[in-house]
Amino acid sequence: MIRWKMTFDKDEEQDWLNDYARQGWAMVSFFVGMVTFVPCQPGEYIYQIDLLPGKGLWADNYEDYVIFMNEMGVEILQRWGRWVYLRKRAEDGPFEVYTDTASKIALYRRIRTMFVWALIVVGLCSGTAWSLLFQFPNDMGARALAGFYIVMIALMLRAVWHCSWKIRELERQES
């Protein structure tokens, strides 16, 4: 079964994957919002999503990460640059990649930074759309392109805000 899910919220996507797993559907792959599921025993897996430390698309010490996850009985399902989809059999006990507050804060800071950079790139790419819109204000293509960029910018801003909110909440718990 293939389902479409494009979200800019790690927690929402993770909860969505775990809901499917509780219903008996195991994620096996992801490609640009298209998630492929296969039948499994209801509640067989627990899913987590991680953004590895690194620069740009390249993760620091990915080989060590893979070894560590394998030792913990965690399967790396999919990797997109530094973005990683993980799962573990529920029968092996609870599964949470980050258990302490400081590491959770570091994770959300990495995610926020990723979205800030994506926002900058989308903002720069949108310049052509705005130029077209001002030159041809009644052109539906120019309007559609500008609308697309407005939606993308709004989604990126929401993601940055969500990560900032999550960081503040975690910092309050830590104090």
Detailed description of the structure:
By secondary structure, the protein is α+β, with helices and mostly antiparallel strands. Helices cover 53% and strands 23% of the residues. The protein is built from 5 helices and 8 strands. It has helices spanning 10-22, 62-71, 101-125, 127-135, 140-174, and strands at residues 2-4, 25-31, 34-39, 45-51, 54-55, 58-59, 75-80, 83-89. The strands form 3 sheets. Strands 1-3-2 form a 3-stranded antiparallel beta sheet. Strand 7 and strand 8 (83-89) form a beta hairpin. The protein is globular and about 60 Å long.
Please outline what is shown here.
The chain contains five helices and eight strands.
List the helices and strands and how they pair.
Elements: E1 2-4, H1 10-22, E2 25-31, E3 34-39, E4 45-51, E5 54-55, E6 58-59, H2 62-71, E7 75-80, E8 83-89, H3 101-125, H4 127-135, H5 140-174
Helix pairs in contact: 3-5, 4-5
What structural category do the secondary elements indicate?
alpha+beta
Quaternary state reads: single chain
Q: What number is the mean pLDDT?
A: 90
Strand percentage: 15-25%
**Gap between N and C termini, in Å?**
45 Å
Major beta sheet, strand line-up: 1-3-2
Give the helix level as a range of percent: 40-55%
Number of helices: 5
> How are helices and strands ordered from N to C?
EHEEEEEHEEHHH
- From the spread of the alpha carbons, the general shape counts as globular
Indicate the low-confidence ranges by residue numbers. Answer: none
Count of distinct strands: 8
